[in-house]
Amino acid sequence: MALKGNLRDFNTTQLLNLINLARKTGALTIQSQGTDAKMYFKEGKLIHATASGQDGDLTHLLLKAGKLSEEQSKQIHARAGEVSEKELALYLINAGLVTQNDVVQSVKDQVLNVIYRLFTWEEGVFYFEPNQLPPAGQITVPIDLENVIMEGSRRVKEWERLQEELPNLDMALKFTDRPSAKLRNVNLTVEEWRVISFINPRNTIRQIAQSNNMSEFQIRKIVYGMLQAGLVELVRPEGAEARPLIPPGREQPVERPPAVKRSVINRLIDRIRRL
Amino acid sequence: MQTVKMVITGPFNSGKTQFIRTISEIDVVSTDRKITSDSERVKEETTVAMDFGRITVDEDLVLYLFGTPGQKRFDFMWEILSEGMLGFIVLIDSSRPETFREARRILEIFRGYAPTPYVVAANKQDLPDAWDPEDLRIALKIDPKVKVVPCLAKDKESVKSVLLELLYAILEEMDAEQK
User: Fold this and answer.
1) pLDDT for B57-92, tens place per residue?
2) CA-CA distance, A35 to A125, in Å (whole number)?
3) Whole-number mean pLDDT of chain B?
4) Which of B175, B23, B66, B17 is nearest to A266 (CA)?
5) How many domains does chain B contain in total?
6) Between the ranges A54-58, A109-113, B110-114, B159-163, where is the mean pLDDT highest?
7) Could you tell me which chain B residue has the CA closest to the CA of A2?
8) Which residues, in sequence order, are CB contacts of B172 under 8 Å at separation 6+?
């Protein structure tokens, strides 16, 4: 099934959320303003990313991270020839120049740099190629998308967008029942922890903001990130009357229709089956 | 005679008129007009007031299907159409992600009108660019309890299955209320 479109209609956060929730494996390419970014995913985890205009060469990454000197980098570059990234990493580790952790961290930083840039792209064509994996020999680092989405969401600055995503602050929050949610591996800021401590189906988002002296913008930003990462979900506040969402400018929802008997529904079902 | 009604809603050009036309026993009373807005000139005509279809169950019971107008400037009609509905169907053109945000907006507005059951119909599944219904569920943040049904509005069996899913959802809610 096709998974393609434009970031204008379906933004990076939503796209990554979909890949995460659907546990997709494959390559996502995004093209925007002359830049191509390609990300690989395995069972919903980000494992590699590249972008045109960014030097993803391992020696360059290690140099940038201060793990190799300029001189070492040049020598390795000259000798490395056609060896794969994995082979090169093994050589560097065995030579005692870097540790495995240095390599993993450098590659991870590079992948994250690529992906965080995408959060600022408002327009760009994307397409997902299922089951396509990076070339053999490429170092892959599995990264939970929950954290990526959280951090990316922090970078989303558009107030209008936040308002659109979370129009009603009189809803409450509860922790998601989704069994795959990995709360233990999620990194939260101090502000997010403050919000977390108030999460309860009886507290509205507005009340949580007031209790923490947060502006509507701040609370929207935090709750939006948590929703996108799948940590929490919106619920109607407990104890309040069932309050359906009311569109702007309307004081009261339309009354519920008079009760229809179960037999009426069964007759409709029988009729439609026979059509 | 008892009459009950369902509302078929969704963004512009999502296939609402076709959906009703496929299943209705009468010629759909459609009030299509030539499109005047260039931005919405994907098709030649659109529904400005409502589509109206009918399924007679027996002498005592008739089901009416109302399709909402697709263009934003006729939003004021939605609340009127939704009064007394049994439930509603949100029809989405699965091949046009640029309409998903609008679909979600419409869904939220209809949820606000009345706490009636609803289903989402992922229409145009025969098109090569159609998104999978489960991908649509995630994209539109649709509650796991709500059914997202693959749909071809021009295919009678497909339309029947969407209507049946809505009726099953109504029965389930009745069961839940009794408990």
Assistant:
1) 988 888 989 888 766 656 666 777 787 889 999 999
2) 11
3) 84
4) B175
5) 1
6) B159-163
7) B129
8) B117
What are the DSSP E strand ranges found in chain B? Answer: 2-9, 29-34, 45-58, 61-67, 87-93, 118-123, 148-150
- The answer to whether B170 contacts A255, with C-beta atoms less than 8 Å apart, is no
> Minimal CA–CA distance to A245: which of B115, B92, B68?
B115
Which residues does chain A have with pLDDT short of 70?
Answer: 1, 155-160, 177-187, 213, 215, 239-259
How far apart are alpha carbons A244 and B113 in whole angstroms? 7
Is the CB of B113 less than 8 angstroms away from the CB of A266?
no
Which value, to the nearest 10 degrees, does the dihedral of the CA atoms of residues B31, B36, B40, B42 take?
80
Rounded to two decimals, the ipTM of the complex is 0.85
* Chain A interface mutation, best of B57, B107, B177, highest count of A Cβ atoms under 10 Å: B57
Size of interface A-B (CB pairs under 8 A): 116
Contact criterion met (CB < 8 Å) for A254 and B79: yes
Q: Do B4 and A260 touch (CB under 8 A)?
A: yes
Sorting pLDDT into bands at 50, 70 and 90, what band is B156?
very high
Which chain A residues have a beta carbon less than 8 Å from that of B55?
Answer: 268, 271-272, 275
Tell me if residue B108 falls in helix, strand or coil. helix
Range of the domain at B84: 2-178
Contact B116 A260 (CB under 8 A): no
pLDDT of residue A85: 86
How far apart are the C-alpha atoms of B52 and B29, rounded to whole Å?
5
Q: Which two tokens stand for residue B170?
A: 């109504």
CATH number for the domain harbouring residue B45:
3.40.50.300
Nearest to B7 by CA among B71, B74, B81: B81
* pLDDT computed for residue A243 by the predictor: 42
Q: Left if phi > 0, otherwise alpha if psi is -120 to 50, otherwise beta: which for B21?
A: alpha
Answer left, alpha or beta for residue B159, where phi above 0 means left and psi between -120 and 50 means alpha.
Answer: alpha
Q: Cα–Cα distance between A1 and A274 in angstroms, integer? A: 32
Domains of chain A listed by start with CATH number: 4-146 (no CATH), 158-235 (1.10.10)
